[in-house]
Amino acid sequence: MSLIYNTGIYVFALILRVASIFNTKAKDFIQGRKDTFLNLKSFRERIGTAKLIWVHCASLGEFEQGRPVIEAMKKRWPDKKILLTFFSPSGYNIRKNYEHADHVCFLPLDTPFNARKFYRIAQPDLAIFVKYEFWYNHLAVLQHHKVPHLLISAIFRPGQVFFKAYGKLFRKLLYGFAHVFVQDSRSVELLAKIGYHHSSRAGDTRVDRVLDIARNARVFPEIEKFVAGSKVFIAGSTWPKGEEILCPLFNNDLPVGWKVIIAPHEITDAHLNNLEKKLSLPLIRYSQLEQMPDTDATVLILDNIGMLASVYKYGVIAYIGGGFGVGIHNILEPATFALPVLFGPNHSKFREAVELKERGGAFSVADYGELKKGFEQLQHPEQYASAAKAARTFIEENRGATEKILEFLETGLYVGDQKKRK
Question: Can you give the pTM of this predicted structure?
Fold first, then answer.
């Protein structure tokens, strides 16, 4: 089976090299790894004999789940060095200068040679993989050298390879993890059925992150003046497909005393102009708000980035975009402020969306009619209070995952003075 796997990796590498000739993403994937070993060697030489914790994330989404753990480890054990690796260019390109990691690089392609060389240079004392990453050769090398490694924020489903008759190779890798921290009880049960009993439900580490953001939410005086006691519908990370049903709702069905804040996912001039054409209500962009503080606009469009997570505190109801495309964006941010959440139909792969919907704190909408119905239902005080409570309870029940992981590391002496492995 390992021969088949490795053959597949080599074929994948060949396809990437051919594709890199005409595909920019494939080229970035190849070029980004060009000096990985050289830079890693320089980093290892700089830190000398310092203890090294390796954290691996596939991309940006997994990074957001690993981030609370990285920052908590750095705060609690400042003498330990953090090596952060990414599989995808999108994650690396955005977080290559992440201040809480001592070195950030691409994960070398998972060939036996690369895995051995990566370990030989990095010499990690502990490895933490986030959510879905199971690279056979890298994990096999860690197991061979008896380097403790964890999997955090994981979710398991019956259809995954671990639970299939042909999944023996990957089950063997799974058994090598010192502990697996999962997001739900169902995952613990699935792992137990295949004989893995070193797992526990910790929750979603992203909840700790959004709670921290909420506690330190920024204040925007211009927005507070714009809101001025109104109820606010916040549409976050919107895409054109979702805006096609949102704009008619705002134009035709917004009750008196309500205002709207829209934060488009893409803030290009073309997107903003098209969005404004769909709206018949008085509107203003955030970049214009300081010069026009006494505006009578009903709609505020956020034409910058980095504000949305804090702006949810001004809201009553939230719509989160992405559900008419590949998947919804972050619904935990509004839920942290106890906002009932609306989103599109493509959300089944997001545990938090499915569970929050089951609890009555979120509502899936497939068209304008369903969006209008959901919005009208939330006008009723009792139903609104129930949905807001469900959102708040979900967040409270899923907090603390980061601390559980750190306690495990501390009590298991995984961050103690270990003998260096060779």
Answer: 0.81
